[in-house]
TrEMBL record:
Family statement: Belongs to the folylpolyglutamate synthase family.
Species annotation: Sporothrix epigloea
Keyword annotations: ATP-binding, Ligase, Magnesium, Metal-binding, Nucleotide-binding
SUPFAM superfamilies per record: MurD-like peptide ligases, catalytic domain, MurD-like peptide ligases, peptide-binding domain
Protein name, entry field: Folylpolyglutamate synthase
MF annotations from Gene Ontology: dihydrofolate synthase activity
Length: 517
């Protein structure tokens, strides 16, 4: 038995280092023919530790029980899909419509990716649903992946939490695709779709989805269903390669594409008195991508709730519509997306324990930008709100997932004179295949982009444990005269966002995380 455990630990370690799909195939025959009996095949065990797109395993996990009573709002895309989901569930909740939301990855706890009526599911309810799924996976020897197990767990929670729907009292599940669309585990859901959404498409996860936006769009378009309207980010219509793929898929499936115009929300009252008063949405000063996400969410909301008879009649938006949308945008706090918070409590933490006195006030911008489009959006926000007309230098605390194109992420955001601390995020619970880029690689690229390696760079290397790397980087960022006047931005990875929020919560700081049930 000891030898078995050692073998599992060794191969799990190798898998986290290597991670290719063919690792399972290359060792399966040798181990499956061994005399030691295992409850699963080696290939199944290894597959559960990696990304393996497909619907067969998750389909088997979801085949039990009656079809779900709730209707689904399914959201795919490269950027903005999590925000669209957050807007949608907030809209449903504001109208008193029962709903649940599943997004990925989780932020701090594995179960915080599942929200019921705007409250994070309790750990007890999550683990009970997870145990049901794990027992099913073991009994059927399915060998589902980690994400497939999580997806099935989310749907178990939905089924237990959402009331039975009726034409007069519907309930909805708002579901974000994990990766792609056509072969993503969420696409195997048995719930009827009320509407689908495709947010802005760009380059990301090319190793799984293809190297062009057209190839990636083909995966995202896989969530379309016959007769179910699909709301599409207006930017996708401007990319001819993406538009052609989406429109061809819509014709083949037999559905209609809806392109909501976010500019309609910026107009004043034009339905009652011809007023030219500023729209309540315009008064919020949202960034362009935030406004687009809000428009997509509201169009999907109207279709799902039957307000548009299957279409998003954006020209019929009224002053009341704009006021409702503005109230949602004003109240919603989506952690890790252009989030300003006080990281001062983290500076009280060191190896010797908390420092005396109250925590200093240290504002920082926290954003999970991790691909070219999101980096462009972050750069635009920082240039407008933090650098100002004088082009003020910024101090960045950066991490990235292994395999990311660092130039595509760093080139939009860094300027000569900026300061950069590179860190490595810690292990990601439930996602053992995710690894950080070495901090040295980030700093090498920063040097090429004009950041002075001698005085403006810091690396949280093996001198600090990974859980302390954010703290040590913040201490560096605020400890010198040169850096004290700079705005601080923590970015490059949602997993760095997770580490920061987890540490801040432990230090008693305000995180903006949703409350638990």
């Amino acid at each position: 038995m000891a030898d078995q455990s050692f073998s599992w630990l060794r191969w799990d370690h190798d898998l986290q280092k290597v991670g290719p799909q063919n690792l399972a195939d290359s060792v399966a025959e040798h181990f499956n023919n061994a005399t030691i009996h295992f409850p699963y095949s080696i290939a199944q065990r290894l597959r559960s530790k990696m990304i393996d797109l497909g619907l067969a395993r998750i389909g088997r996990l979801l085949q039990y029980g009656p079809p779900p009573a709730w209707k689904a709002i399914h959201v795919a895309g490269t950027n903005g899909k999590g925000s669209v989901c957050a807007y949608l569930s907030a809209m449903l909740h504001a109208r008193g419509i029962p709903s649940a939301r599943f997004t990925s990855p989780h932020l701090v706890d594995r179960w915080d990716c599942i929200v019921v009526d705007e409250r994070v599911v309790s750990e007890t309810a999550f683990r009970a649903a997870e145990q049901t799924v794990l027992q099913r996976d073991g009994a059927e020897q399915i060998g589902a992946t980690e994400f497939e197990l999580l997806t099935a767990t989310a749907f178990e929670v939905f089924n237990a939490s959402l009331p039975s729907a009726s034409p007069s009292t519907p309930s909805f599940g708002v579901i974000e695709c994990g990766l792609g669309g056509s072969l993503d585990a969420t696409t195997a859901m048995r719930a009827d779709r009320a509407v689908t959404v495709v947010t802005r498409i760009g380059l990301d996860h090319q190793g799984f989805l293809g190297s062009t936006t057209a190839a990636i769009a083909a995966h995202k378009a896989g969530i379309m269903r016959p007769g179910v309207p699909c709301v599409v980010d207006l930017a996708n219509r401007d990319d001819h390669a993406v538009r052609d793929v989406l429109e061809a898929r819509a014709r083949d499936v037999g559905t209609t594409l809806v392109y909501p115009d976010p500019q309609l929300f910026l107009r004043g009252d034009r339905t009652t008195h011809g007023s030219s008063e500023t729209s309540p949405v315009a008064q919020l000063g949202l960034e362009p991508h935030q406004l687009t996400n809000l428009a997509c969410a509201y169009a999907a909301f109207r279709i799902a709730t039957g307000q548009d008879g299957g279409q998003a009649a954006a020209e019929a938006y009224t002053e009341a519509d704009a006021a409702f949308v503005a109230s949602i945008a004003l109240q919603l706090r989506w952690p890790g997306r252009l989030q300003t918070l006080n990281v001062g409590p983290l500076l009280k933490a060191n190896k010797g324990g908390p420092l005396p006195g109250a925590a200093p006030s240290v504002p920082a911008l926290l954003d999970g930008a991790h691909n070219p489009q999101s980096a462009d959006a972050l750069a635009a926000y920082v240039d407008k709100h933090l650098r100002g007309e004088k082009g003020q230098a910024v101090t960045w605390i950066l991490a990235a997932s292994h395999g990311k194109d660092l130039d595509e992420i760093l080139r939009p955001i860094l300027r000569p004179g900026d300061r950069v601390a590179a860190v490595a995020f810690g292990p990601v619970d439930g996602m053992p295949w995710v690894r950080p880029t070495a901090p040295e690689a980030i700093l090498e690229r920063a040097t090429l982009l004009g950041v002075d390696a001698a005085i403006d760079q810091y690396s949280a290397t093996d001198k600090t444990v990974k859980n302390d790397s954010v703290v040590s980087a913040l201490q560096w960022a605020t400890s010198t005269d040169k850096g004290r006047g700079n705005a601080i931005v923590i970015a490059g990875s949602l997993y760095l966002v997770s580490d920061t929020l987890r540490l801040l919560r432990a230090a008693g700081g305000e995180t903006g995380l949703p409350r638990a049930l």
